[in-house]
Amino acid sequence: MKAPVPPARGSTVRGALEEALASAPEGGLTAKDLSTLVGISEKDVADHLTHLERSLKAQGLRLEVLPASCIRCGFTFKERKRLTRPGACPECRSTRIDPPAFRVSS
């Protein structure tokens, strides 16, 4: 099976991420969505988002994080600072977690 070919881009990775997030739907985009749109690995997305968050702040914008939630019990990870998907729910210990989603807001 061939690896997916990333789309050609004329900007930097973070520029492409910012562009994708600016046109994100109301529900935001997950790390998986962003990795597909920008052509980077899903694991690299969180690092780039951390840096992008600082750049957006300088522009008067902010990276909005729609928190991850447990599929089994509905627990929402509101206090979580890391941008990656949690491993397990602290309430029910389930590993079925909806990942966080991201979007740019003013």
Q: What is this structure's SSE topology?
A:
Layout: H1 13-22, E1 29-30, H2 31-38, H3 42-58, E2 62-66, E3 69-70, E4 97-98, E5 101-105
Antiparallel strand pairs: 1-5, 2-5, 3-4
Helix pairs in contact: 1-3, 2-3
- So how many helices? 3
What global shape is seen? Answer: globular
Count of DSSP strands: 5
C-alpha-based Rg, rounded:
15 Å
Oligomer: single chain
Strand content: 15-25%
CATH architecture: Orthogonal Bundle
Distance between the termini: 42 Å
CATH topology (level 3) name: Arc Repressor Mutant, subunit A
Question: Could you say which structural class the secondary elements and strand pairing correspond to?
Answer: alpha+beta
Overall pLDDT, averaged?
Answer: 90
Helical residues, percent? 25-40%
CATH class: Mainly Alpha
- Give the strand order of the largest sheet, numbering strands 1, 2, ... along the chain: 1-5-2
Low-confidence stretches: none
Spell the H/E element sequence: HEHHEEEE
Task: Summarize the main sheet.
Answer: 3 strands, antiparallel
